[in-house]
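I am hoping you can look over what I have pasted underneath with an eye to the fold:
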Amino acid sequence: MEEIDTIVIGAGPAGMMAAGMAASRGKSVLIIEKNDRYGKKLSITGKGRCNVTNDCDVDTLIANTPVNGRFLYSAFNTFSSKNTMEFFNNLGVKTKTERGSRVFPESDKAQDIVTALTDFMKSKGAIGKRGEVKSVNFDGDKVSGVTLKNGEILKSENVIITTGGVSYPLTGSTGDGYKFALGAGHTIIPPKPSLVPLVCAEKWCGDMMGLSLKNVSISLFEGDKKIYTDFGEMLFTHYGVSGPIILSASSHMKQGKNNYKIVIDLKPALDEPTLDKRIVRDLEKFSKKDFCNSLSELLPQKMIDTIVMLSGIEPHKIVSEITKTERRNLLLLLKNLTVNIKDKRPISEAIITSGGVKTSEISPSTMESKLKQGLYFAGEVIDVNAYTGGFNLQIAFSTGFLAGCNV
């Protein structure tokens, strides 16, 4: 193959954006993907719905990027969440904004986003190639191309690495970009799971496996210190807890520490006096029933046995015989359901990898390496990560846009 201007390694959201933008500037672009289809991880994001971005300003984007958010100031200002929505709308994918300013395609189909990006870069002239890169090659301090694992050498004066992290390895995120960056002399901040489900000590979490709770609030404690709060949706699993607010909480937990607990307020809209009145009303309504049969209007069915057990009230005690102290204990339980965190789930289950190419070695205004001319990075391979809510995909789009515009 004749020499080309730009090679992009990895056809995820950052890679396809970078390839399309470089090609739109008249560059000859080759995008190399080892999977049999583009956007494999992108197609399963948001439970297949794809939370494209978050409809907010740049300061909010940065505030929701706890790891090296300021590094993204230029990227977010150059290609903001508003730009992302306009970009996809112009490609024929209409978007909608839901709770928490989360933006989704109107169709609720992540594949529509993948297809739009694929068509965009191809329409601009980017050429796709299936293959696996063995190494990025250099001539002194300048990029000279790549070598594929089949031995083929491709020459190019620009290489954009958009290979993702090491989460969801079955989608192709196996850490290849870290190896390429190390070969160029870059520092890699050791990858660890971010936005990952949590393993709990309490066996009763598994008893409620599959139960999704909406409109609850959580507080994350490290020892006795509250370090994070959130409101929204969570899920009980066979090993512990998951769901959007749990994933965001996980990003505040340091690896190797095990003194964390999460306190769940099941009724955050009700203060204690109001909740007490509600409990009294329910208990009066079911006064002749057993306690275990009196909570159907207060709690999801799948949660009742657990709450009855944790309340310390005898399950078959007649409701009219419940004491004021027992009622108070029930109230406190509903406002402070506590799970102790044993561990995070493996990095392979993390939505996002924390760690990657050190940001101080990358130009924030171009995404070019400060060590090698013509080498660029975009997306999750860089040591930046954000909370759930569309922020991580916005990072991919913004950094991919910047790299594609500057090769």
Remarks:
- Residues 312 and 326 are 8 Å apart (CA to CA).
- The mean pLDDT is 93.
- The first strand starts at residue 4 and ends at 9.
- The longest helix spans residues 391-406.
